[in-house]
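Example S7 (structure tokens).
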């Protein structure tokens, strides 16, 4: 009976915006960038530092996000594998975004210009992440901009 009550309250919490049962994930920073080309696609890898203030673990499911690099639209990128976020934690989780390689070429030239002018290169991820527990899912809004400096940009090559 306890399990049924817990399941019902959790279901209500995820669908009815009951903030006493869950809190939004906090996306804190990006670290350890890597880029590689595989079969005409670009794989952008990085560690995303995420804080989960909830008393339960959350799984980020395959999702699509809009990537903008140096103010140039790189199109939609995919998160293809599920990522398990531990409960009551703040840790780095490996993300791999897969996108069309031709769109990244334009952003590469724009990135060089931004680095020459000293502004740094902005990586912006925007969209909704599908996440949840078991079969209860919620879409978390995400709009995060990371400014990469000259040394980090050179380490990609």
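Recovered sequence:
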């Amino acid at each position: 009976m306890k399990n049924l009550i817990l399941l019902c309250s959790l279901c209500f919490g995820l669908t009815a915006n009951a903030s006493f049962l869950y809190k939004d994930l906090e996306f804190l920073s990006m670290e350890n960038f890597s880029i590689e080309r595989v079969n005409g696609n670009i794989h952008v890898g990085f560690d995303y530092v995420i804080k989960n203030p909830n008393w339960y673990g959350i799984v980020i499911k395959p999702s699509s996000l809009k990537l903008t690099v140096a103010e140039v639209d790189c199109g939609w990128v995919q998160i293809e594998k599920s990522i398990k976020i531990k409960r009551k934690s703040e840790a780095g989780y490996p993300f791999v975004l897969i996108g069309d390689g031709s769109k990244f070429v334009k952003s590469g030239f724009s990135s060089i210009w931004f680095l020459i002018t000293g502004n740094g290169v902005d990586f912006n991820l925007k969209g909704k992440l599908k996440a949840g527990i078991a079969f209860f899912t919620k879409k978390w809004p995400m709009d995060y901009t990371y400014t990469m400096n000259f040394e980090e940009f050179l380490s990609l090559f």
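Notes on this example. The radius of gyration is 18 Å.
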